[in-house]
Design a protein that fits this description.
By secondary structure, the chain is mainly alpha-helical. Helices cover 78% and strands 0% of the residues.
Length: 183
């Protein structure tokens, strides 16, 4: 596991992005946002942390490469590995939880209907427009199709993509809060 980004490594990363400090800062911010979006599309539970972890690893990767590559290419190749690690961890955690419940007999009598009933009730309480927005946003599409689909949804709403993400995030939070209090 790589160490956190040091000031020397960070300076090297910024220099690799651009010799001009102001431009490097803008490119860094844009790269970080792109990585967060990537991890959001992949369904990672903490996309900000995954993006930070990816950025922490980029200087090490720059040191290992002999040819000059585009930083975005390096970043997304590192992000792919971070994504795979996160997925493995989540799967391992899920298997461990399942094993625990199996050993303790907690899965006997489990009903998916009972488990998701509070969420269904909370979903029913949303306005029709909010329901459609959530269903469209989380459409079961490939990643490249999904980004285009979400951009079209934002255009239909007359807002930019970040505003759409914020709106969906608030709706999800409302659903989570409602379902949590209903249990």
């Amino acid at each position: 596991m790589p160490k956190d980004l040091t000031s020397v490594s960070f300076a090297k990363l910024l220099k690799a992005l651009s010799p001009d400090e102001a431009r490097a800062a803008r490119l860094y911010t844009k790269l970080h946002e792109s990585l967060v979006n990537y991890f959001e599309l992949k369904g990672i539970s903490a996309p900000d942390r995954a993006a930070d972890e990816t950025i922490d690893r980029i200087p090490e990767r720059i040191n290992q490469t002999t040819k000059t590559e585009d930083i975005r290419f390096i970043a997304f190749s590192v992000a792919k590995f971070v994504f795979l690690e996160k997925i493995r961890k989540e799967q391992k955690r899920a298997r461990a939880g399942e094993e625990f419940y199996k050993k303790n007999g907690k899965l006997r009598g489990f009903s998916e209907k009972d488990e998701f009933e509070p969420l269904r009730e909370c979903f029913k309480s949303l306005y029709e427009h909010e329901k459609e927005l959530l269903i469209n946003y989380f459409a079961d599409l490939e990643a490249d199709e999904l980004s285009v689909h979400r951009q079209k949804s934002a255009d239909r709403e007359g807002i930019d993509l970040n505003a759409l993400r914020n709106r969906v995030s608030r709706l999800r939070k409302r659903l989570e809060d409602c379902a949590g209090s209903a249990k």
